[in-house]
């Protein structure tokens, strides 16, 4: 099982088991049964998943299933329910309401076998409308901007036109104490753009981001890892607060109080989780 909220989730089509070995590149490898698999090859992809988890299950693995309201999604759920060894995470797609999460949990609940975490891809207006109920039942939220933008009829890959959705997702996740992950960056040759968007997503409250190519992972991990300067500043804020008796005090030119300490403690906790 993963021991911390991942920074990077790398999607890999379940059709290509030879690519599964790249799981060590990212915090979580998401074996995709949905968009990464054409309809006529869904059965083949499920067979690959079944063989993989029977022969060489690895830590930090997730499986993204088709929409639960489709026959393919039900087939995916049946596959996962009969696996003896299961992925750490099941990623749901095209969710319309929170009740769908209960269906997945009920089918994966089995005596003596640890059920996977359930992450929900928020990619429909209905899911965003029901976001707080979804967050209360999920273990993590992933923003799926492409389908969400397509449903609105707006450009895919924008920041400003997706800001409301992003803010709603991180607020709901924070309210329920679960992790939120930003959408993929679709321009594979634009590393500076990926870094900018990753840092902006982190500033908004996301703890990680999805990747659609292995070469994106290092940039994402860098963006969502506290830097040495950030960790040093956080430690100084906590120490200054303690020295003042936890009163509002001054640290160089910065006035700090309880909110600053709370945020600094989160930076220190994240650094500890990542072994820094």
Keywords:
two-stranded antiparallel sheet; eight-stranded parallel barrel; TIM Barrel; 10 strands; 276 residues; 2 domains; 45% helix; alpha/beta
Which helices and strands, and how do they pair?
Elements: E1 8-13, E2 28-32, H1 42-55, E3 61-64, H2 71-82, E4 89-92, H3 99-108, E5 117-122, H4 125-129, H5 131-137, E6 140-143, H6 145-152, H7 163-176, E7 179-182, H8 191-204, E8 208-211, H9 217-223, H10 228-243, E9 249-251, E10 254-256, H11 258-273
Helix pairs in contact: 5-7, 10-11
Question: What this model shows, in words?
Answer:
The chain is of the alpha/beta class and 276 residues long. The chain folds into two domains: 216 residues, Alpha-Beta Barrel (TIM Barrel), CATH 3.20.20.60; 46 residues, no CATH class. It has eleven helices and ten strands. The radius of gyration is 20 Å and the shape is globular. It starts with 7 loop residues before the first strand and ends with a helix. The model has no long low-confidence stretch (mean pLDDT 91).
Number of helices: 11
Integer-rounded radius of gyration: 20 Å
- Characterize the quaternary organization of these chains: single chain
Q: Biggest sheet, in brief? A: 8 strands, parallel, barrel
Give helix % range.
40-55%
Task: Note the overall shape.
Answer: globular
- CATH homologous superfamily title of the largest domain: Phosphoenolpyruvate-binding domains
Q: Mean pLDDT, nearest integer?
A: 91
Q: What's the total number of strands?
A: 10
Supply the helix-strand structural class.
alpha/beta
Q: In brief, what are we looking at here?
A:
With 276 residues, this protein is an alpha/beta fold.
């Amino acid at each position: 099982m993963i021991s911390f909220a991942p920074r990077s989730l790398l999607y890999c089509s379940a059709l290509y088991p030879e690519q599964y070995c790249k799981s060590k590149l990212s915090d979580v490898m998401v074996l995709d049964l949905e968009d990464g698999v054409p309809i006529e090859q869904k059965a083949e992809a499920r067979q690959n998943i079944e063989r993989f988890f029977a022969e060489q299950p690895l830590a930090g693995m997730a499986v993204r299933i088709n929409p639960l309201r489709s026959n393919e999604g039900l087939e995916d759920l049946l596959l996962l329910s009969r696996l003896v060894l299961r992925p750490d995470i099941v990623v749901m797609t095209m969710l319309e309401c929170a009740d769908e999460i209960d269906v997945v949990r009920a089918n994966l609940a089995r005596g003596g076998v640890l059920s996977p975490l359930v992450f929900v891809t928020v990619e429909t207006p209905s899911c965003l409308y029901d976001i707080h109920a979804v967050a209360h039942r999920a273990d993590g939220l992933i923003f799926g901007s492409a389908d969400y933008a397509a449903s609105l009829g707006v450009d895919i890959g924008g920041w400003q036109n997706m800001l409301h959705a992003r803010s709603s997702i991180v607020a709901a996740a924070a309210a329920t104490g679960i992790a939120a992950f930003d959408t993929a960056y679709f321009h594979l040759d634009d590393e500076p753009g990926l870094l900018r968007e990753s840092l902006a997503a982190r500033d908004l409250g996301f703890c990680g981001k999805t990747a659609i190519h292995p070469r994106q992972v290092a940039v994402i991990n860098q963006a969502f890892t506290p830097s040495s300067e950030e960790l040093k500043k956080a430690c100084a804020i906590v120490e200054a607060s303690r020295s003042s008796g936890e009163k509002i005090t001054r640290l160089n030119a910065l006035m700090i109080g309880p909110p600053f300490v709370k945020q600094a403690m989160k930076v220190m906790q994240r650094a500890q989780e990542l072994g820094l």
